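BUG: 3D viewer hangs when loading the predicted structure for this chain

Environment: internal workstation, default settings.
Expected: structure renders.
Actual: progress bar stalls at 90%.

Input used:
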Amino acid sequence: MTTLDSQTDKTLSNLDKLSNTELAEIPSDHGLPVGISPLESRVAGHPSLDIERQTIGMLRRSDGRVYKPVVKPLLGKREISFYENLQISQDPVMLQLKNYVPRYYGTTELQIFGRRVTFLTLKDITDGMAEPCVMDIKIGRRTWDPLATPEKKATEELKYAESKRTYGFCITGFQVYCVSSGQLKQFGKHYGKTLDAKGVVEGILLTC
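Structure tokens produced before the viewer hung:
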């Protein structure tokens, strides 16, 4: 885990106490608040933070927390509700699921590219790892939302079709640290879309 200097440590300890405007006015080299940077271990899903295109991606705090942007208001509201209900639910299934879900710290608002953006604040499960190996998996044969349009459903049905039909899940991307070369290899979502049933097995077993 990276050691923080006293000034950054003080800033991070006060992040949750600051108002949204105050937080937005703290500058950094990335145009982000001090102690916050793009999440480098992202392998699929949300796009990367891009200053030129002004796309907002996953962010990481130096104290081991991750900011996940709420891109779509309706889906974001449901995701926030899920995490909040998970904290108080006494349902046996939910209690078991809680053991496999990153710790939830609530939501945070940041001013990014002139826009106020809401983020879910979660624990970074790769915190303290020098070369984290990460795999992004979608579980289930159906990957479209119940409220999706017919066009969206048709598009989703075509994605990762063989993998979902055969195994009930698909790999959307991953990164693996190669001990022999000392390099971290990333396989993004475009690679994931090429995986057939055999390719999924090869991807899971991949070593260097």
